Amino acid sequence: MRKLLIVLIVFLSCADENKVTFKIAMWSEFLPPQSVIAEIPFLKENNLALYQAVHHDMLGKDEMKQLFISATDAGIETRAWLLLDYPGGYWPNEENAEKFYSQAVAFMDWVEAEDIPVRWIIVDMEMSWQKTQVLSEAKGDFTKILELLKSNMNMERFNSAKKKYIELVKIAHSRGFRVLCVTYPQVLDDIADGDDSIQDALDIPVTGIDWDEVSFMVYRTVFNDMWVQGFTSYLIYSYAKSAIEFFGERAGIDVGLVAPPVSGGGEEIPGLANGYTAPEGLLEDIGAARSAGIMSVHIWPLDYVILYPEPERWVNTSNLDITPPEPDGVTDEIRELFAVLDGAIN
Ligand SMILES: [Ca+2]
Ligand SMILES: [Ca+2]
Fold first, then answer.
1. How many angstroms does the Cα of residue 10 sit away from the middle of ligand 2?
2. Which of 1, 59, 267, 288 has the most CB within a 10 Å radius?
3. Which domain holds residue 214?
């Protein structure tokens, strides 16, 4: 009887270990490491993972090392989101593959030399900071947007950057690191016809690289700001379905954007014109991702969530509605438009 009991306990603990649990992570971008350390109780109490920005000038800094140690000691899963300087484009992409490669290798060197407890690197594949400014100024002006995307087309440069990222992931794996790529959801509209035109137009080599996870920034508030109004959480559901279709268990979804609390005539932050100032919409988006089968959802950003009087309301998923949302009348149309563009920009 006792033997049977032990076998049963071992069996149950193994089953639990293999169970994939739903995870929520917070992006932490601009807070100084000391302020993030102060939020460790909040992260811990709410069972949140931490995707921490490591800006180019924080590499080798003791306070950054301390943050990774404190968060890991508290049992918080912590990943390093590597960012370049602004002249270098800020986010990794087709234009700065060499530069990003060097910085990522330097990061791994540092982590190994000082035995820092972080084994995940995040590659935030986005168009350069400079081009993103042009794009956000052109919002709603399709001619201007197309002009920019057309000028980005350069398959030779695209393929050579892709090679560099393939090499980076290979080296990371050989050194025991894993790599998450986070990027625009339009990658998912690029795949069906078998060419990389949308990724080239956005300077974001993503497919064909051995990422351990790939996550898509389906920011409903940005879609409403950038294209047309009327996107519901169906937008998140639709892309989450495609993410699962193409990337299976490796797929994640990023939701947002959370704006800072409205405190009477504060300055408008670019990209946050329609940002969430209450958790309801964000929780709908999380529920929509979950209803499509996504097991990893990430919220941008910790920086603003903690400014609210009850920050835990933003991540309280105990009453999450996981009914698939009804079509909103704009998501399917805009995704069809992206697919048409895919064919047209060859
Ligand atoms: Ca394509
Ligand atoms: Ca390009």
1. 52
2. 288
3. 2-344
Q: List Cβ neighbours of 202 (8 Å cut-off, separation of 6 or more).
A: 127, 149, 152, 184, 186
For the chain, how many structural domains are there in total? 1
- The first and second tokens of residue 252, run together, are 């994640």
Cα–Cα distance for residue pair 25/47, rounded to 1 Å = 9
Strand, helix or coil at 49? Answer: strand
pLDDT for position 228: 85
CA of 192 to the centre of ligand 1 (A): 6
Residue 160 alpha carbon to ligand 2 centre in Å:
11
Q: How confident is the model at residue 329 (pLDDT cuts 50, 70, 90)?
A: very high
Read off the tokens for 154: 């350069």
Beta-strand relationship, 296-299 and 48-55: unpaired
Burial of 16-41, coded b for 16+ CB within 10 Å and e otherwise, reads: eeeeeeeebbbbbeebebeebbebbe
Ligand 1 centre distance from Cα of residue 334 (Å) = 15
CATH of the domain at 230: 3.20.20.150
Question: What pLDDT was estimated at residue 264?
Answer: 46
Residue with tokens 């105990």: 318
Task: Assign 61 a pLDDT band (cuts: 50, 70, 90).
Answer: very high
Distance from the CA of 219 to the center of ligand 1, in angstroms? 22
What's the mean pLDDT when you consider all of the chain? 93
Looking at the chain, the number of H-run helices and the number of E-run strands are: 15, 8
Per DSSP, the three-state class of 79 is: strand
How far apart (Å, rounded) are the C-alpha atoms in residues 176 and 1?
42
**Token pair in block for residue 39:** 């939020």
Q: Please give the angle made by the CA atoms of 335, 147 and 341, to the nearest 5 degrees.
A: 25
d(CA 50, CA 76): 7
